[in-house]
Amino acid sequence: MSTQQKHNFGAGPCILPISVMEKAASSVINWDGSGLSILEVSHRSAEFEEVVAKTQLLVRELLSVPEDYEVLFLQGGASTQFSMVPQNLLQASGNKKGAYLDTGYFAQKAIEQARHFGEVQIVASSREKGYNYIPDNYSLHHDAAYLHLTSNNTIEGTEIFEFRNFGVPLVCDMSSDIFSREIKVSDFDLIYAGAQKNMGPAGMTLVIIKKTLLTKIKYPLPAMYDYRTYAANNSMYNTPPVFSIYVSMLNLLWLKDQGGVSAIEKQNIKKAELLYEAIDKSEIFYGTADGGHRSRMNVTFQCRDKKHENGFLNYAQERGIVGTKGYRSVGGFRASLYNALPLFSVEFLVKTMAYYEKMQEMKNANQSQKIGA
Ligand SMILES: *Cc1c(COP(=O)(O)O)cnc(C)c1O
User: Fold this and answer.
1) pLDDT tens sequence across 227-240
2) Which of 32, 52, 127, 216 has the most C-beta neighbours closer than 10 Å?
3) Hey, whose CA ends up nearest to atom 3 of ligand 1?
4) Ligand 1 contacts CB of residue 151 (under 6 A)
5) What pLDDT score was predicted for residue 373?
6) Which pLDDT value is given to residue 372?
7) What is the CATH superfamily name and number for domain 7-12+260-372?
8) What residues bear N6-(pyridoxal phosphate)lysine in this entry (predicted)?
9) Which of 239, 240, 217 is CA-nearest to residue 228?
10) Handedness of CA 230, 236, 240, 242 (dihedral sign)
11) Which residue minimizes the CA distance to atom 13 of ligand 1?
12) Residue 154 alpha carbon, nearest atom of ligand 1
């Protein structure tokens, strides 16, 4: 392994395949023998327009995006979508409300931003239980402009596996599980995702929006905050995030080579099962998310005795395992198992957990022997 020596379980920006990074690195110097760096090519050149077209096509192929949806590349991260969604869909919806399912930290942030543009209805929340599950027993006000969901809660480690139809536009933040499993795009009206968790490097945001939803935006908006601008200009109204789109294209090509989303989903299930099984068997660690809602992308766990928290993090780090510290507000551990993380990294983590546990047992046995003597 020349490019990488670490097992990267970081939550984002994510691990990318080595082959993708090597190709990206060589294109920074000389892009496909053009004598130019990918960093200095005109975004209006035919060559780069082809990159955009190819990336859009790969998104369409890999997710089976129907013809009546636009595939757009924006900037500003998923966080900008927290306000763009209500700005485009709520602000001029009359007296309608933005309906939100409160499943965690990022859902909360989306709710906060929506309040700038209209009234918000929180249809259900798992806050009182530390967001360790996905509420599914809720109904919508008849005057909801849309329902907003977060399909995978990156910090809390929960994931939605079933999407119900409420007869209103369904908007979903899929930042941390897009391309990790098969979805039916037609179940949704707007999907958005920051690229840096499964699609590519930071800097680009993917938006998949139903064309009929665009026609419902009837009022003028600042150009950069208006979905119609991106649809009308093929995501090239201004300079797009050239490098991020390019590397995303490479990464999606890699995904296609792996057999596409259905093949990677099988791998992802295998990886998650292996780790959850180890956590459930452990005397030291326990999983924090509720059984049926456990995320396959971000596995959150804690230790029963807090003294092991730094102990295990240091032990893992010494063995080349990085990125397993839980989010600052949650603590404990989080292992992110994004598409490019190989199965052997998960096997290595599981072994490391078992070694650590064995070491503790031996220490305890030693101590009780001393006490006994
Ligand atoms: C990381 C993340 C975000 C924030 O993304 P940015 O691109 O950093 O703005 C939003 N939602 C979810 C689910 C995330 O995982």
Assistant:
1) 999 999 999 999 99
2) 52
3) 78
4) no
5) 55
6) 67
7) Aspartate Aminotransferase, domain 1 (3.90.1150.10)
8) 197
9) 217
10) positive
11) 175
12) 15
- Does ligand 1 lie within 6 Å of residue 17's CB atom? no
Q: Residues 6 or more apart from 157 whose CB is under 8 A from it? A: 287, 288, 289, 294, 295, 298, 299, 300, 334
Q: How far is the CA of 67 from the centre of ligand 1 (A)?
A: 27
For the chain, the domains span: 7-12+260-372, 18-257
Instruction: Assess whether the C-beta atom of 78 lies below 6 angstroms from ligand 1.
Output: yes
At 351 the pLDDT is 98
pLDDT of 367 reads: 85
The architecture CATH gives domain 18-257 = 3-Layer(aba) Sandwich (3.40)
Distance 178 CA to ligand 1 centre (A): 12
Q: Is the CB of 154 under 6 A from ligand 1?
A: yes
Contact 238, 217 (CB under 8 A): no
Closest-lying ligand 1 atom to the alpha carbon of residue 106:
11
Rounded to two decimals, what is the model's pTM? 0.96
What's the 47 CA to ligand 1 centre distance in angstroms? 30
User: How many angstroms does the Cα of residue 76 sit away from the middle of ligand 1?
Assistant: 10
Contact call for residues 341 and 15 (beta carbons, < 8 A):
yes
**Structural tokens at position 140:** 């919508």
Strand ranges (DSSP E) for 151-288? 152-153, 158-159, 170-173, 190-194, 205-210, 285-287
Q: Is the CB of 176 under 6 A from ligand 1?
A: yes
> H or E segment at 149?
strand 144-150
How do residues 93-119 score in pLDDT, each as one tens digit? 888 999 999 999 999 999 999 999 999
